[in-house]
Amino acid sequence: MAGGRRRGGATTAQQNAGAAPKTGRPKKPVEEPAARGPDVDSLGFQAMDRNVPGLSHVILQKLNMKSYEDYKSAMDGRKSGSDFGIRTYFDMFQKMEDTFKFCAECKKLPDALPDPKSLRRCKRCQNVYYCGVACQRANWPLHKKFCKKLKLVALDRLVEWLIFTGDIPFPTESWTKPARAVEGWEDWFSMQGQLEEKLSTILAGRYMTLLWANAGKPRPEDTELRESVRRLVTDFHSRPLTIGLGLRLFGIDPLAKALTVHVVGASHVETLNTRLTDYDELMKMFPGHWGIEVVMVGVDVVDGPIMRPPLAMPAPRGRVYLSSYKGLYHDFWESHVETKLAARPDLVVGFHPGFHACPDLLAGWLPTLLLLRDYRLPVLFTVYSEQELKSSLQILVELETHIMGFAANPFASLRPEQVYSSPNKAPVYCSSYYIALLGPAAEAMPGAGELEDDDGWQGEEPSAAGAAGDISPGLG
């Protein structure tokens, strides 16, 4: 099941709205699975309203939704772009910006002010708002710590639209270095031929021009836009390259046989507007591979092109094949893997599972965590921050899972993201850290705590006390 995490529910709804001016084909009804875990998005809305009372209502209102059920319908792909009440590009960007309008100091929404139009945006970051000079001055000692980063957040939030128009990412080629020699994004960008020309094409494109003609903000300098596009390219490719990292860490060779990867806890974050080609960077990472199937499994998987049955046979040679299943992972295992309707995974990946967030989410994840442990499946989880890493390690140790290692992810997204309703906090980055797991702790053999030596990352199974305390010695 999906975890309690990731870009705030409203932002995901904005992504859905972001493609609204384009005409899409009608969506067929999606049948809800009988079994559901805790509603992660509902928990997210509740957290939002604790920080800024009434903010979730504003978000629903701006997206032409009357209730949370409308929101879930949109996330399940059962609400067309026109249903959001968006008729023009200016409309789209203005509605998105309106969902960020609340005083960062007193938390008041526009409707709670004598003049709803009196909110003023910070001129430096163009991200946070204040109801007056007094609140801005009171908030400045805190805000100044994050103002520069929040400027990047606000810029990337707009430029992200170019992912939905297809301008981002730019075309890539097969890697000119072996995967083990690519240590991070600097190496990855160095392999991109004619990089500056590709970036210039995006900056000069029709949709970049439309964006700044309708965003209600001045167009930034080209240097800033280039850096934003680069950050968003890393955000787009972070998931497939993290899967590739997992294969390398566990010594799973795509050149030896066709592989199956299960993405557990997949939701709209991984599947909304996902195209069949979105994980093709794995083909460039492992040229000559025998075929890789990536199966998205989760109760919040969205209907779309990848909503097709998993393969019972190996993936087509040289291709990355995306498929999905809408439901709980342990149900999928029983109905598809055990009956051989789907292949047993060579690797299981969970992007920000979020089982650390609250007891209800942990309870929903528990059957899956125990299944992954007891079937000794190679597992790679990612988390946003060191705090999430500590909390997740604590739980995994208590479940007597063999933790092979944990470290900073060299393919973490470089796009900073703010806490939606609490902007004056350190931004987070998707998949900042990874945790590698394999089977029960009791079955771990001496020396089994080492991952692939070629990658230079290895870790020891932490004690419960160590997982809860200082984790830095375990980071690569």
Structure description:
With 476 residues, the protein is an alpha/beta fold. It has two domains: 9-163, no CATH class; 233-474, Vaccinia Virus protein VP39 (Rossmann fold), CATH 3.40.50. Helices cover 38% and strands 11% of the residues. The protein has helices at 9-18, 40-51, 55-62, 68-75, 89-98, 133-143, 147-159, 161-165, 185-190, 195-203, 206-214, 222-249, 268-271, 281-285, 329-337, 359-374, 386-398, 464-468; strands at 120-121, 129-130, 259-264, 292-298, 320-326, 347-351, 379-383, 401-408, 433-440. Residues 1-14, 16-34 and 452-476 have low confidence and may be disordered.
Helix fraction, binned, reads 25-40%
Number of helices: 18
Number of E strands? 9
Instruction: Classify the secondary structure makeup into a structural class.
Output: alpha/beta
Anisotropy-based shape: globular
Biggest β-sheet, characterized?
7 strands, mixed
Q: What is the CATH domain class of the largest domain?
A: Alpha Beta
Q: What's the number of structural domains?
A: 2
How far the N terminus sits from the C terminus, by CA atoms, comes to 29 Å
Radius of gyration, CA atoms, in whole angstroms: 22 Å
**How do the strands line up in the largest sheet?**
5-4-3-6-7-9-8
Could you state the CATH homologous superfamily of the largest domain?
Vaccinia Virus protein VP39
CATH architecture of the largest domain: 3-Layer(aba) Sandwich
The ordered string of helix (H) and strand (E) elements is HHHHHEEHHHHHHHEHHEEHEHEHEEH
| CATH fold title of the largest domain | Rossmann fold
* Mean pLDDT across all amino acids: 86
Biased composition (Low complexity): 9-20
Domain MYND-type: 103-147
GO molecular function: zinc ion binding
Region (Disordered): 1-42, 447-476
